[in-house]
Every structure is written in structure tokens, then in C-alpha cells.
Design brief:
The complex is a heterodimer. Chain A is mainly α. Chain A has one domain: MetI-like fold (Orthogonal Bundle). Chain A contains 13 helices and no strands. In chain A, helix 3 crosses helix 13. Chain B folds into 5 domains: 33 residues; 187 residues, 3-Layer(aba) Sandwich (D-Maltodextrin-Binding Protein, domain 2), CATH 3.40.190.10; 165 residues, D-Maltodextrin-Binding Protein, domain 2 (3-Layer(aba) Sandwich); 47 residues, no CATH class; 31 residues. In chain B, a hairpin with a 2-residue loop joins strand 7 and strand 8. Chain B is globular. The chains are: A mainly alpha, B alpha/beta. At the A-B interface, helix 2, helix 4, helix 12 and helix 13 of A face helix 1, helix 2, helix 4, strand 12 and helix 23 of B.
């Protein structure tokens, strides 16, 4: 009795954190999103989001950018994670660390270096703004894709693969019928860790001279024009989109597990 | 407008939040206060009993922070100048010696005027801040500033370094320009000033091209010119380019009220002009290298771009840096018009309040920064141009300019020109007492940027602040320029997007059904 009592209190620091830094800002966000400059309730900001061709255009542009970045990360990360996880290297951990190491270096520093490299290759960065953003973000977010993939694949039950091979499945068949479905949770968590920041991280865009706004920069521009209301509304809608996405991926993750269990 | 809302107390949420925050921080706060009181009590023993905390907020890298190298001593006839400690710490020491009052400077920085304004709106409290002209005007119009006391303007008092030493040319500007019928000078003391222009690479760009704002859309420099990633500076340049023919016409230049007309033209934010500006800046965007907020200098120095819309102070910095690699850049103040800007110290009501001791310290701080030696230290450290000339009382600043820009003695006399900075020191055009004998190229380089010639100042205009309505319009124009517009998506792409979306939904549903069946 006494023990459970004490354990409950361990959650207090997190509860305080939650209230102060998650719930309270959200409340403020809601407040500004649904009020106008005189402080009265309004839905104009909400309607404005969907009727303004700029916000919709920016949303589509950000989605496209995020999609391309995510696919690029996945295509690069999956083979690496797979090879690493299935290989019999003794120093696997060291190689994984090599991929994660860039994350320890300050991210603007990394981008500055990347900028110089790209400038050397392309001659003039301004010719390829979209490509530069994709390269910059892929470079930046790759470790977030590799890690969850590696962790899932390395824990994958090897006997299932042996069983598939025993039952006459070819290498390719085994990979697509066993490994890929079972690594879906890793894919999903990797995708959500890359996709969401890619929609809003405008620092990469700014530093690599892509002058087209993405969602993050659009929000910023409203705030620097002292218009907190429209800025909050865009942030809120973005939050909703991300929420729906996470919910959907959560469900399909469950599906994936069920599928695995049925094997 | 937001401030009003927060202050009105109509928002229950704010109250609840404040309550919650207060409770949470009550404990730590009390501890902190106790600690501070003990600290203050200790000081009391040492001093006469008063401690003033002055919260100063300034631009980043915009004040002498000391720690100069040994060989950086500026040896003027009036004595050596050297920055050992941060200049605000020197102020605290000076103030203590003068008055026996202990001042603690809490020094912090902001990145942009808008950031500062937002910080103030959410309730950050500062006593003394240093925003740009338009933000000073905005804060003034909203009644957020404390006026300087009468004593501050007493020219008889030797310690009033600001009124005694600020350039007559700047004092005049601060007197003539008014907000709500009150002159700027009542609320603001100029710290640094400058103009905007084009920093360019003279090997690739002929000077006459850089002398027009039209360079930003000039296809000869496709993807090789940068503009600023803030609407005001880029808009000003675009306005100059757009109205170039008018601004350069003889009729306009020779018209009786030229300065007034120029200011009105450059501050024109009517619907119609904004439409034209939007179109023009869209063109600029297709032509320019980038919209930069800080990388322009580095990109000029490394040769990535050939021309860069720049503030005079940053241009000086970039030219200095480039010279270290034997690479020479030049600065041009376009013929159409240039944006004359100021950054100035203002005291905030929410910080100073009715605290006379604090206001006295704040005014002393402004005066300390206006001492000729301080002006030189700050100028040397940050590269911008101080508003302080020293007036008729002190020629340290002129000695410093001379020390910095005079040609070496062994320079070929043919190569030396007279550069008159008289208007800046006396307010009169051709004062013969303030001539720098500099090498000819300095008339296009640092000297030219740091002390623009009189004719450049004659074609300068101050950019006014935008009221709420105009600000929304201007911001909308900027967003229209920068955003990918959904209307520009062709129909076939909409169909592709729709099809992809439908396919994704279809696949998702099918998987789910399949799973159920299993």
C-alpha cells in the first residue's frame, strides 16, 4: 500500500511538465487561433486557412517536400539498416554509431558545411532550390530513419526467416513476405520522425536559399507581422494534420502486428 | 492591439495561467528574492545604500564587449582608447564613482525589431532597449515609452554627453520628425545610424549598375544578387527600382519640397502600389540568388554572389573582412534614394515606471554610451556609425575617423582626395574643418559607407512605421510573393494529386478489410 502510494508521486514532475509546457501552450494556441485582434471569438482564421490559396499552396508544397524527403530517407536508410542488422559484423554498434554521429554535431554547422559542398557541385545554389531542400533535409533527418529501422530489424525473430526458407520461400519472397511486414513498426516510426519535421523545419530552407515558404516559415511570417491569430490557427491546423497522421499510422501499426501474429 | 487585449484582463485564460504559474514559481521565487535581498544587504555595507538594476536589451553584437587584443589600441592625440571590459561594466563602475549608486546591468539581446516587440507583448520587462526608427515610432505611438527628463537636455551640464555630442544632423532629424505631435528626441536618443545600399564586387559589376536599385531585377546578374529576407528593406529597394524614372527625373529632384515628396513616395503603401510592388518583387525573386537574413556578407566575401542589398554598417564589416583576403568590395548608395535609418535608446514604461533612480541611471547609461571614447569603442567593435560627433567640445571622434581612413604618408599624392564629412559634424554643407585626406578608392569603400557623402544624405528618406492596417497589407503582399500559390497548380496536377490520394485511401481500406477477413 505504502509502496504504490510513493510510486504514484514519481509521476508528479512529468505531470507538472505536461501542464506547463504542453497543455498550457496549447490552451494559449487555441485562444489566439479562435479570437481576432479585439479579443472576440471568431472562426474567420479557420475559414481563412482553407480559402487562402497561399496557405493551401504552401501546405501542398510542404507536403510534397516532406514526402520526397521521407521517401529519400527510407530508400537510403532501409538497405543500410537491413544490411547492418543482418550482418555478422562484430563491430555493428560502431557502424551504427558512425551513422548517428552527425547528430552530435550542431545542425547549423552541418548545414553550413553541406552548403559549401553543394555549392562546389552545383556551381550556383540558387538554381536548384527544391533539390537543395530535399538534400539538406535528407542529410539532416537520415539518422532518425536509420535508428528505428535498425532497432526493429535487429530484434526480428530469425527463426521466422528460417521457417520461411524451410517451407520453400526464395530469398526475395522471404524478404517481402516476412522481413518487410515485420519491420513495418520501424518504418512507421521512422516515417513519422522524418515526415513531420520536414514539413516545418524552415531553417534548412533558409540556409540553403529556398525562398519558397513552407508551413514553418509561413507561421513565422505571421508572428513577425504581430498577427498571432492567423499564425496560431495555421499552427493548430498543422497540429491537427499531424495528429490524424499519427492516429492513422498507429492503427496500421496495430494491423501490422496483428498480421505478424497471424503468421 | 495584442497588448491591449492582454492588459484588459478580459481573458480568463491568461488569469488562470498566471495563477498557475504564480503558484508554481512561488517557492522558487521566494528563495530567489531572499537571495537577492541578502546580496543587496551586503552591498549596502559597502556602498551608500542604493542598488539599481537596469535591464538593457540591445541588438546582438551591437556594443563593445571588450577583450581587445593588445595591439588593438587606438592611439589618438586625445589619448589611447582600449576596450578591456564590456562597456556596460565600465559604465557601472563610472556611475558608482560619480554617484555612489551601485548599478547592476542585466544585459540581453534581441534578433529583430519584431522579436523585441513580441517579447514585450508577452510581458518581458526591460528598462532600456535599442530598436530601430520604425519600432521606436510604433512604441511611441502606442504610448509605451518614458520621456527623457528635462535635465537630460541641459547642454550646460558637462555630463550630458548625448545632447552635447550627438551630430547636429541627427539631432535635427530627431527634432523634425514627430509622432502624435511629439518630437522623437523627447523619447529616443540615437545610438547608431546608416543608410542602405548595394555592396558589390567591382571586378564583375560596373559601378553604374550598382548605383541603381534596378540591379536587383537586372538579368545580367541572374542568380547573383541577394536581397534581404525582411519585407521593409526589400520593399524599399523595390520601391526605388519601381519608381526609378520618377525619382531620377530633373523635375522631381529640383522640385521645391523634394525631401517631403521623396519621403511620401518611398512610404507609399497604397493598395495600388503594393500590387505593383508584389509583381516586381516576384520578378526579383525569380532573378535573385536568395532572400538572406544574415548570410549575405559571407556570400559576398566568398564570392558566391556579386551584389548584396546591405546596411552600411554590415557593408563596412564585409569590406574589412574581404580585405583580409586581399579581395576588394565596394559599396554604392543608389541614385534613386536611400533608406536613412537609426537605432536609438528608448526607456520603457513597463520597466522604468515611476522609479526616478532607475530613470536617472538609464539616462546616465545613454550619456555614457554617448561619450566620444565610448562612441569610438563601440564603432571600432561593431563597424557601424555612431550618432556621436563630440560636437564642439571634443574632437576624439574626428580624430578616430582620421586615424582610420587617412591615407598613409608614403601614398602617392595623386591618389589622395579630399573627403568632406563636415555636414555630419556641423550640419552645414561645406565646413572646411572636417576633411579627411583619404585614398581615392575609399570614396567607394568603407569611408563612403560609414560616412556617406552629403549628396547621398540629400536623397535619403526615413521609412515610416506601418499602422495595423497597412502592416497587414504589407505582410499579405510579402506572403503572396513568398508562398507557392495553389492557383498556380495546373489542372492535371490536381487530378494526379486527387488520384494519388484516392489510391492511398483505397489501399488502406482494402488492407483493413483483408485483415478482418483473415
Amino acid at each position: 500500500m505504502k509502496k504504490t502510494f510513493a510510486r504514484k508521486y514519481l509521476g508528479i514532475p512529468y505531470a507538472v511538465y505536461l501542464v506547463l509546457f504542453v497543455i498550457a501552450p496549447l490552451v494559449v494556441l487555441f485562444y489566439y487561433a479562435f479570437t481576432n485582434s479585439t479579443g472576440h471569438f471568431t472562426l474567420a482564421n479557420l475559414a481563412g486557412f482553407f480559402t487562402d490559396s497561399n496557405t493551401i499552396g504552401t501546405l501542398i508544397y510542404s507536403l510534397c517536400l516532406a514526402m520526397v524527403v521521407t521517401v529519400a530517407c527510407l530508400v537510403i536508410a532501409y538497405p543500410i539498416a537491413y544490411v547492418l542488422a543482418r550482418s555478422k559484423f562484430k563491430s555493428k554498434a560502431v557502424i551504427v554509431m558512425l551513422f548517428v554521429m552527425p547528430m552530435w554535431i550542431n545542425f547549423t554547422l552541418r548545414l553550413t558545411a553541406l552548403k559549401e559542398i553543394l555549392n562546389l557541385i552545383e556551381g550556383n545554389l540558387a538554381y536548384y532550390p527544391f533539390l537543395n531542400s530535399v538534400i539538406g533535409m535528407t542529410y539532416d533527418f537520415l539518422p532518425f530513419m536509420i535508428l528505428p529501422l535498425y532497432n526493429t530489424i535487429v530484434k526480428l525473430d530469425g527463426s521466422l526467416i528460417e521457417a520461411a526458407q524451410d517451407l520453400g520461400a526464395g530469398r526475395r519472397q522471404t524478404f517481402f513476405k516476412i522481413t518487410v511486414p515485420l519491420s513495418m513498426p520501424g518504418v512507421i516510426s521512422g516515417v513519422s520522425m522524418v515526415f513531420l519535421p520536414a514539413m516545418t523545419n524552415y531553417v534548412v530552407n533558409d540556409m540553403l536559399y529556398n525562398s519558397t515558404y513552407i508551413m514553418g516559415s509561413l507561421i513565422g511570417s505571421y508572428f513577425s507581422a504581430y498577427d498571432w491569430h492567423n499564425g496560431s490557427m495555421i499552427a493548430l491546423i498543422l497540429l491537427a494534420i499531424i495528429g490524424v497522421f499519427t492516429l492513422l499510422s498507429g492503427e496500421s501499426e496495430e494491423d501490422g502486428r496483428r498480421g505478424g501474429a497471424l503468421l | 492591439m495584442i497588448g491591449k487585449m492582454m492588459n484588459s484582463g478580459s481573458s480568463k485564460i491568461a488569469k488562470i495561467m498566471a495563477g498557475a504559474l504564480a503558484t508554481v514559481f512561488a517557492v522558487t521565487g521566494t528563495v530567489g528574492l531572499l537571495a537577492r535581498n541578502t546580496f543587496a544587504a551586503d552591498e549596502e555595507v559597502a556602498a551608500t545604500g542604493e542598488t539599481v538594476v537596469l535591464r538593457v536589451c540591445n541588438w546582438e553584437e551591437y556594443i563593445d564587449l571588450g577583450e581587445w587584443e593588445e595591439d588593438e589600441v587606438i592611439d589618438l592625440d586625445n589619448g589611447d582608447i582600449f576596450g578591456e571590459n564590456p562597456i556596460y561594466e565600465d559604465f557601472a563602475e563610472w556611475y558608482f564613482e560619480k554617484t555612489g549608486v551601485k548599478v547592476v546591468i542585466e544585459y540581453s539581446c534581441f534578433g529583430t525589431n519584431e522579436e523585441l516587440y513580441n517579447m514585450l507583448t508577452i510581458g518581458d520587462v526591460y528598462d532600456l532597449v535599442c530598436p530601430s526608427d520604425y519600432m521606436i515610432m510604433k512604441l511611441m505611438s502606442e504610448g509605451k515609452l518614458v520621456a527623457f527628463s528635462e535635465g537630460f537636455f541641459d547642454t550646460e551640464n558637462e555630463e550630458n554627453y548625448y545632447v552635447r555630442g550627438a551630430s547636429p544632423f541627427i539631432q535635427q532629424a530627431f527634432e523634425e520628425n514627430e509622432i502624435n505631435g511629439e518630437a522623437w528626441k523627447n523619447y529616443a536618443a540615437c545610438y547608431m545610424w546608416g543608410v542602405t545600399g548595394m555592396l558589390y564586387n567591382p571586378d564583375e559589376v560596373p559601378r553604374e549598375d550598382a548605383m541603381s536599385w534596378r540591379i536587383i531585377s537586372n538579368s545580367d546578374y541572374y542568380r547573383q544578387v541577394t536581397v534581404k529576407d525582411n519585407v521593409r528593406d526589400t520593399m524599399f529597394a523595390a520601391m526605388g527600382a519601381l519608381k526609378s524614372d520618377l525619382l531620377m527625373s530633373e523635375d522631381f529632384i529640383n522640385s521645391e519640397n523634394y525631401s517631403m515628396r521623396l519621403r511620401d513616395e518611398m512610404n507609399d503603401v497604397s493598395e495600388e502600389t503594393l500590387m505593383q510592388l508584389q509583381e516586381y518583387i516576384q520578378e526579383v525573386r525569380k532573378n535573385a540568388y536568395s532572400f538572406e537574413s544574415d548570410s549575405g556578407k559571407a556570400d559576398m566575401i566568398t564570392g558566391k554572389v556579386l551584389a548584396n542589398l546591405q546596411w552600411s554598417g554590415d557593408a563596412v564589416y564585409a569590406m574589412d573582412q574581404a580585405e583580409e583576403d586581399d579581395y576588394y568590395l565596394e559599396f554604392a548608395i543608389p541614385d534613386e534614394c536611400t533608406n536613412l535609418w537609426f537605432d536609438g535608446w528608448v526607456m520603457l514604461k513597463n520597466g522604468i515606471g515611476n522609479d526616478a533612480a532607475k530613470q536617472k541611471a538609464a539616462e546616465a547609461f545613454v550619456n555614457y554610451m554617448s561619450m566620444p571614447e565610448s562612441a569610438v569603442r563601440n564603432m571600432y567593435y561593431i563597424g557601424y556609425t555612431s550618432a556621436i560627433t563630440g560636437g564642439e567640445y571634443d574632437d576624439t571622434v574626428f580624430q578616430y575617423i582620421d586615424w582610420t581612413y587617412s591615407a598613409d604618408e608614403d601614398e602617392d599624392p595623386e591618389n589622395i582626395v579630399e573627403y568632406n564629412v563636415g555636414y555630419y559634424f556641423t550640419g552645414e554643407e561645406d565646413s572646411e574643418d572636417y576633411i579627411i585626406y583619404a585614398t581615392e578608392d575609399q570614396t567607394r569603400r568603407q569611408l563612403y559607407a560609414q560616412y556617406p557623402p552629403k549628396d547621398a544624405i540629400d536623397r535619403s528618406a526615413i521609412m515610416w512605421y506601418f499602422d495595423t492596417e497597412a502592416n497587414a497589407r504589407v505582410n499579405q503582399m510579402w506572403i503572396n510573393v513568398r508562398c507557392f500559390n495553389a492557383n498556380s497548380i495546373p489542372v492535371w496536377l490536381w487530378i494526379v494529386i486527387g488520384a494519388a490520394f484516392a489510391a492511398a485511401v483505397f489501399i488502406m481500406i482494402r488492407t483493413r478489410i483483408n485483415n478482418r477477413v483473415k
